[in-house]
Amino acid sequence: MTENVVLDAQTRVADYSNVSLTENTRAGYPIDYIDNAMIPSLAGHPHVVIFLTADAFGILPPIAKLSKEQAMYYFLSGYTSKLAGTERGVTEPEATFSSCFGEPFLPLNPSVYANMLGERIDAHHVQVYLVNTGWSGGPYGVGKRMKLSDTRAMISAALNGILEKVVYRKDLVFGFLIPETVPGVPTMILEPRATWVDPAAYDIAAQALAARFQQNFIKFSDVTTNIRCAGPQPRT
After folding, report:
1. How far apart are CA 161 and CA 127, in angstroms?
2. Closest residue by Cα to residue 49 from 73, 69, 65, 31
3. Quick check: 183 pLDDT over 90?
4. First-to-final CA distance of the chain
5. Helix %, strand %, coil % of the chain (to 5)
6. How many Å apart are CA 123 and CA 114, to the nearest integer?
7. Quick check: 6 and 21 in contact, CB under 8 A?
8. DSSP classification of residue 87
9. 36-58, pLDDT tens digit by residue?
10. Is the pLDDT of residue 141 over 60?
11. In sequence order, what E strands does the chain have?
12. Ranges of each domain in the chain
C-alpha cells in the first residue's frame, strides 16, 4: 500500500523519485519482508533514544549527545522546521517549536511528559542523542541538506554503542557534547562552525538561535533550574 506515490501513466509502475505531488510519500508492506524483523514485535525499554530535528539555520551539529536534563530541555522545546512538501502552504523551511515534538496532540501539560522521560532515562539507563537532518554549511538557501547516508551512519553508531567509545567536545553555546569522530562520516561536518565559509557569521546566527530557544522556554515556568540551565546559553 502506498500513499502520495505517482504511478507511471503507461506501465502503472510506482515512480518513487517523482515529487510532483509531495516529497512526503509512504509505503506499507508486510513486516516479514524485513529480514531481521522481530516477530512478534515486542521489545524491552530502549537504551538509546533519538530526537530528530531539521535545523533550517545550519547551526546545530548533525548529532549531539545529551545529558538527562538536556534531553528534557530539548524534548520540551521540540525545535525543528516545517519543510516544504510536508505541510500545506509551506514553500520554504520555517523554524518552529512544538513541545515534545507533537504539541497539538498533548492532552496534558508538556512538563508531565518531560518528567516521565527523565524518570525513564534514569530507570533504564537511556542515552539520548539529538540528530539534525536539516542544513549544514549555512542556512536554507546557502547550505546543503545533511546527506541521508551520513545520518544513517550516525544513527547506526548511536544504536550500536560506538558513540560511547569516541571523544567528545562540549559546545560552548548549546552545552551538549559533539563527537569528534563518527565511523563513515566526514569529520568536518561534525563541527557546524567549520562548515560555514564565514565562521563569524555562524557565531552570530548561533547566538540568535540560542536566544530563540530561551525566549520559547519562558513559558515553562514550572521546570527545575537544572533543566532550565541545560539549554543554550547565549551571550548577553
Report:
1. 10
2. 65
3. yes
4. 53
5. 35, 20, 45
6. 14
7. yes
8. B
9. 888 888 888 999 999 999 999 99
10. yes
11. 2-3, 6-7, 14-15, 26-27, 48-53, 63-66, 79-82, 94-97, 127-132, 135-136, 144-145, 168-170, 177-179
12. 1-29, 48-228
Cell matching residue 99: 513541545
Residue 141 C-alpha from the chain's centroid: 20
Q: What is the architecture, at CATH level 2, of domain 48-228?
A: Alpha-Beta Complex (3.90)
Give me the percent of the chain exceeding a pLDDT of 90: 78
β-pair type (48-53, 127-132): parallel
* pLDDT tens profile 103-117: 999 999 999 999 999
Name the nearest CA neighbour of 213 among 90, 91, 70.
70
Contact 110, 103 (CB under 8 A): yes
Q: Which parts of 32-182 are beta strand (E)?
A: 48-53, 63-66, 79-82, 94-97, 127-132, 135-136, 144-145, 168-170, 177-179
3-class SS of residue 209 = helix
Q: Among 122, 133, 112, 129, which Cα is nearest to 71's?
A: 129
Backbone angles phi, psi at 150, to 5 degrees: -70, -40
